[in-house]
Amino acid sequence: MHDINALIDFDQQHLWHPYSSIIDPSPTWPVSAAHGVRIRLANGRELIDGMASWWCAIHGYNHPLLNQALIKQMEQMAHVMFGGLTHEPAVELGRRLVDLTPESLDKVFFSDSGSVAVEVAIKMALQYWQAREQPGKHRLLSLRKGYHGDTFGAMSVCDPVTGMHDLFSGLLPSQLFAPTPSCAFDAPWDAMDISALTELMEQHHQELAAVILEPIVQGAGGMRFYHPEYLRQVRKLCDHYDVLWIADEIATGFGRSGRLFACEHAGVAPDILCLGKAMTGGYLSLAATLTSTHVAETLCGGSAGCFMHGPTFMANPLACAVSVASIDLLLDSPWQQRIGAIEAQLKAELAPLASHTAVAEVRVLGAIGVVEMKDAVDLRQIQPRLVEQGVWLRPFDHLIYLMPAYVIDTDELGALTHAIGQVIADS
Q1: Do residues 207 and 135 make contact, with C-beta atoms less than 8 angstroms apart?
Q2: Which residues contact 343 (CB under 8 A, 6 or more apart)?
Q3: Structural domains of the chain, ranges and CATH numbers in brackets
């Protein structure tokens, strides 16, 4: 690697990082390599990664089988347009997604990223109702504390307080929002939890194209886990009021919650399903939006005669090939036992932190561990302290959380939970 100081200096002056100010940028740590669950910094320090690179590197870094899948595909072709052409990696990935998801979801649209998968889902819903000659059904109903991406359609269904609505007031489509589900995943079901959403659907179903939500786990909007019965009720309401249901499983897909897909906790299927992140094992950006034959054929039977979307890098062969390898690697592994062991260790080692006066709540589901603080976390202060302890975490808002690779061992996971405890104790 080039001179580290020169690299950092150029980065600070010219490169914009996620959710950062170019005027007063946050510190960054140059990375030279990554293997397994460890990130090697340019200065030689190794960090145990508790983030799986924003939840996508579920097999860890530099996995030989995934590397080989890329090399093999690269020797054939790195990319070819999907307009008028097809290829084996796309067909094989589509086959796996159709086989693994609910039987009703048998049509697959590939795109570049999670945000775009949500845009695709929204456009599918809107075009579906146009084709049914009901253009008045053009709004979406979402949940507070939800997060669906940073593009405009996706932003419009993110939490109206934390989801950048104020910055783009008057420019985002006007959507409806139900309160955050309050009934916890493992608590007794309270029928009142669905009452507000029921009332909104009763009042607005004639203008609703779809309900969109993150099933079971609300991710970047607050890392909250809610009761599976909520999803069953959403499915019933959507059927009753003739409204589509979009499930955003970009964060939860491929095992993160303890089931292959979070909707499985409730035993229900959406009309449209968004997948991404872990699909490629963290190697390349790729997403998919699945829907039913009914939705797809109705949509294409409208005046446009086709679905009006087509990303340049749609179904990129490299991304599809590594996705096939990643899915096969996951399914051939004892992933359920691994996630169960991660969950048990997180519960045991994070639970004592709940008694700290600065902690509001500790919660764990699958390979997700969350320590919610009473006050907002100062990222500039806490992240260097975590790095000094040899771990990589990226807290946000009031949350210090873990979403490690499934291959992490007990000592590595213990180092992460210990580091969290240490920074809280020192705060």
Answers
A1: no
A2: 258, 364, 365, 366, 367
A3: 4-62+334-425 (3.90.1150.10), 76-331 (3.40.640.10)
Place of tokens 């993150």: 214
Tokens of 349: 């080692």
What is the rounded CA–CA span in Å between residue 208 and residue 139?
5
Residue 357 corresponds to which amino acid?
T
If you search the block for the tokens 């796996």, which residue do you land on? 96
Query: Which of 147, 230, 283, 406 is labelled catalytic?
Result: 147
Q: Which of 159, 277, 283, 401 is catalytic?
A: 277
248 a catalytic residue: yes
How far apart (Å, rounded) are the C-alpha atoms in residues 143 and 157?
A: 8
pLDDT digits (tens, 9 = 90+) for 281-307: 999 999 999 999 999 999 999 999 999
Q: Of residues 49, 248, 271, 283, which has the active-site annotation?
A: 248
Distance CA 330, CA 332 (A): 5
CA distance 107 to 290: 5
Cα–chain center distance at 6: 34
Can 277 be counted among the known catalytic residues? yes
Chain segment 173-232, per-residue pLDDT in tens: 999 999 999 999 999 999 999 999 999 999 999 999 999 999 999 999 899 999 999 999
Query: How far apart (Å, rounded) are the C-alpha atoms in residues 340 and 399?
Result: 22
Structure tokens at 273: 């399903």
CA atoms lying within 13 Å on the CB side of residue 368? 27
Nearest CA to 279 among 392, 395, 117? Answer: 117
Beta bridge partners of 274: 248, 289
- Tokens standing for 387? 């790095």
